[in-house]
Amino acid sequence: MATAVCNAAPIPARGTAERAQLVDLLRVKAKLSRRETVRLTRIAGAGHYTSTFSAAELFAAIYYARLRYSPSDPDWLDRDRFILSKGHAAIGLYPLLADVGFFDPIELDDYTRLGSMFGDHPDMRKIPGIDFSSGSLGHGLSIGLGMALAARISGRAYRTYCMLGDGELGEGQVWEAVMAAGQFRVGRLIAIIDRNQLSIDGPTEELMGVEPIEDKFEAFRWRVNRIDGHDLDAILDAFTDLDDNADALPQLIVADTVKGRGVRRMELDKNWHVGNLVGEDYDDVMAEIDGGLQPLLAEVGK
Ligand SMILES: [Mg+2]
């Protein structure tokens, strides 16, 4: 069967018209992710806003510029794998999976209702385009390492991407996976850390410090790149910079982000980890998201 592959072409170089066009598209898709997160949360009565907003630009860049997949053939063996290890941000990923064609967007209207394929956390057995059922934190990177090693053994050239939360670094078996990936030089394993400063309980550095992240991963034999995770050009450059050699060091992109980015009342406020906007608040937030990313309050001195 002929497979239509998304993102088969290289990412256009910075400074070209094609690149500017791509960044514009990604901005629109990040907005779609945020808007739909707010809409779907109201259907469910609760949702993970801030963990999703911090990852919106990353989701857009991964699905519309980098990951190779085929919506008409979700199980295509040569597809790149993507594991959303911070599974609670799935609410912002489902709308993009619908938008690229894995399923009809109308399915989203029953989000979390009885019989819907969508839970608060993603289920690989039900949702086309989901490669792993995540939500129990700290396991995704080990699964990703297994997938990447499977590619090596089976002679396939796909890459495996795994997005982790920063709070997640203190959970599960993350560091066993980091250590093993360095040992086995799994170059086609790419971890992306959504470094949004907070976990559900507060600032990571007060609860279980993760810095210096670069030094930690480099000590475990990883190649590390640290970027602004809301700067679409920086994300695209980081993807372009990845070493495609299967025997290279495993690769980490630390994406410095702001939890709740795009909705000022939520930015860096742990109390919006889970919430439900209704009435005027709902309309205000939708309008704010439509306006695109504004400077952070901290940057304008408020
Ligand atoms: Mg976090």
Q: Ends: how far apart?
A: 57 Å
Q: Percent range for helical residues?
A: 25-40%
Proportion of β residues? Answer: 5-15%
State the helix count: 10
Rg of Cα set: 18 Å
Shape: globular
Which structural class do the helices and strands define? alpha/beta
Spans where pLDDT lies below 50 across 5 or more residues: none
Write the layout of secondary structure elements.
Blueprint lengths: L16 H28 L5 H4 L2 H11 L14 E4 L5 H11 L39 H15 L5 E6 L8 H10 L5 E7 L2 E2 L2 E2 H4 L5 H7 L3 E6 L3 H9 L10 E6 L22 H12 L12
Parallel strand pairs: 1-2, 2-3, 3-7, 6-7
Antiparallel strand pairs: 4-5
Helix pairs in contact: 1-3, 1-4, 1-10, 3-4, 3-9, 5-6
The structure holds magnesium ion.
Magnesium ion binds next to strand 4.
Written account of the structure:
With 302 residues, this protein is of the alpha/beta class. The protein has a single domain, classed as Rossmann fold, CATH 3.40.50. It contains ten helices and seven strands. It is globular, with a radius of gyration of 18 Å. Bound molecules: magnesium ion. The site of magnesium ion (MG) has 7 residues, from strand 4.
Question: Which terms would index this structure?
Answer:
alpha/beta; five-stranded parallel beta sheet; Rossmann fold; binds magnesium ion; 10 helices; 302 residues; 37% helix
